[in-house]
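Record pair follows.
FIRST:
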Amino acid sequence: MTLVNRPAGRRYGPVSHNLVMGRSRTRRTGERLPYFDQTVRIGSWNSPGIAWSSPMPRLEPLIRSFARSESGAVTVDWTVLAAALCGLGLASAAAVRTGVGDLGAEVGTALSSASVAVLSFGGDSDSGWIPLSYTAERFAELTDIFSEYSDDSLESTYASYLLAVEYALSTGDLAGAAVFLDAAAAAVAAAAARGPGISDQGAGLNALLETYIEATA
């Protein structure tokens, strides 16, 4: 917050705090202030005034720049964001379907018999993955959805889920990690069902699953 000393000899009137199209203006002087700059003046009509100016940065240019950027780092940010939104939707759907308590019970049941995933890469769509956060039916539905992706899209989707798992584990969000692990496994299963499979053959997924199991032990 900036303290501004106003010179004597200038008339100051009360300030209107109404924001019109992102601008604030004084009611009597008609002075236009910068975007999102709210000012409160104290002083009589013919005496020096003091103004507290508290400007807020405009986020719109930053957002537009972010949206237009084609740099690799921003591409990763968008990928992680897309994965996070997708995972949030899937987790929300599961919670609505069963309730938060039942969802936790499903995760606990899956963990009780979970081991490092054994994924098949032939033509069989049955991957051998034990879902951590979904029912078998929901996992199959997600696999079917991923089967409609192109090879490149499936690879990038798989990679984005691995990044999301890593982030969830690093922040202690085990429920989120379980959702993203299942999504990544569904991508692996979809790729295996139609060809050679994901480029790393699920190695990254299995490594993160081991970390997840250790964290929940």
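SECOND:
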Amino acid sequence: MNDITREITEFLSAALRSEVGPDDDYFELGLADSLFALELVTFVEGRFSLIVEVEDLDLESFRTANRITRFVQRKTGSPEYIENR
């Protein structure tokens, strides 16, 4: 697990008050709802200094910590950016 995935997993576990792993789908597990999705997008934007555009709002990109990691890497254009930040 890289640093970014670990940080996202820690945020998710704290925010959801439930231990989640990097591949756990917290929506499918019933731990998250649409209001949490807004909180999650706000966290991603603030922590990784990026803007989540309307066209980025595909739930599939935000269902697990690993998917969020890939989304952030795509938006920043570089896996190295993520690991060295």
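COMMENT: The CA atoms of residues 17 and 31 lie 9 Å apart.
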